[in-house]
Amino acid sequence: MRTATVVLLSLGALLAGCSKPSGAAQDPAAPVAKVDGRVITEGELAAAAKAALVAADARHAEEVYNTRGRALQGLVEKQLLEARAAKEGITVDALLLREVGGKVTEPDEATLQQVYDQTKATGRPLPPFADVKAEIAAFVKGQSAEGLRQAYLARLRAEAKVETLLPPLLLPKVDVKADGPARGDAKAPVTVVEFSDYECGFCARAEPTVKRMLAEYPGRVRVVLQQFPLASHRFAAKAAEAAFCAGEQGRYWEMHDRLIANQQALAPDALKGHARALGLDGTAFDGCLDSGRMAPVVETSRKLAEGLGIDSTPMFYVNGRPLSGAQPWERFKELIDWELAAAKR
Predict the structure, then answer these.
(1) Nearest-5° angle of CA 31, CA 34, CA 35?
(2) According to the model, what pLDDT value does residue 62 have?
(3) CB 190 within 8 A of CB 160
């Protein structure tokens, strides 16, 4: 059997390319590898890596932004505490002891046992309760202290009228196909495309935020849903098909909401049960689901996600600007407000 000869060209240049100034042009015809004499060019490499690199750049920019945000929050909290301590003529440590540490109570036995049982129920191997009781107590007290600290800082922020003046993170816009099941006005100036997975807990966590967008920006925000069932989720693809099968009877969103609310019941028989609970024509629904005729629709959505370099859910695009994960409401709001303002400029 003939063995192909693979030659990588200009490896040093390829590695050094990451440090080139942005905008530095590279010759698309330049060879980067040869396979049995057949040249692979820089242009081919750029096309193959484009989506993944865009996604990687977005993740990096978001991490930098979040790191700066956390650092700023720490500075604000430090200033709030120092100002209040100075006003009362005490140290910051004394202030925190009074408002936080001194209010933390010892957890009772029942609370500790409940935490132990809940942790054990996840399948995590644990030593006997008596052996880890002290550690659980420290954990519970730590959680309580953090809750008290955040509540106290929230009061200080409100009294001081803290304003955050950092501009929103504006990642470069991506050309995203905005067709598919949609909610909101088709003529809305802001379109949010979401890639979701019915077995993804973070997708369920993001659902209230999606509904809040529609409620707080009526006529101004439209949400388009795309399916990206992850390979690691056994029933996600079939659940996505079920939503489209319900859509044949005009009940896509009712099924969507039910599946998001019942992520532990997505096996085919359970999907058929959901259809009947919604009052759908069971025979028609079963025929659609069993035939797999909606599988190509789901696959088209999956390929769209892969072409964009998406590797996790949920993933959002606010007028093309990427926003990954179940982000806080404030992150969506600042992007939506920015896009609405831009539409008026």
Answers:
(1) 150
(2) 85
(3) no
User: Is residue 109 packed enough to be buried (19+ CB in 10 Å), middle (13-18) or exposed (0-12)?
Assistant: exposed
- Condensed to tens digits (0 to 9), the pLDDT of residues 190-219 reads 999 999 999 999 999 999 999 999 999 999
Query: Residue for token digits 């982000």?
Result: 327
Instruction: Give the model's pLDDT for residue 152.
Output: 96
**In sequence order, what are the beta bridge partners of 182?**
224
Q: What is the DSSP letter of 102?
A: G
Q: Which residue has the tokens 């919604």?
A: 278
- The two structure tokens encoding residue 319: 């007028």
* CA distance from start to end of the chain: 65
- What parts of the chain have a pLDDT lower than 50? 1-3, 10-23
What is the set of domains in the chain, with CATH numbers? 58-160 (no CATH), 182-344 (3.40.30.10)
314 prior amide bond cis, ω within 30: yes
197's CB contacts (< 8 A; 6+ apart) are 203, 227, 228, 229, 230, 233, 236, 313, 314
112 C-beta neighbours (distance < 10 Å), count: 20
Predicted TM-score of the model (pTM): 0.69
Count Cβ atoms below 10 Å from residue 296 Cβ, excluding itself: 10
**Residue 16: per-residue pLDDT:** 35
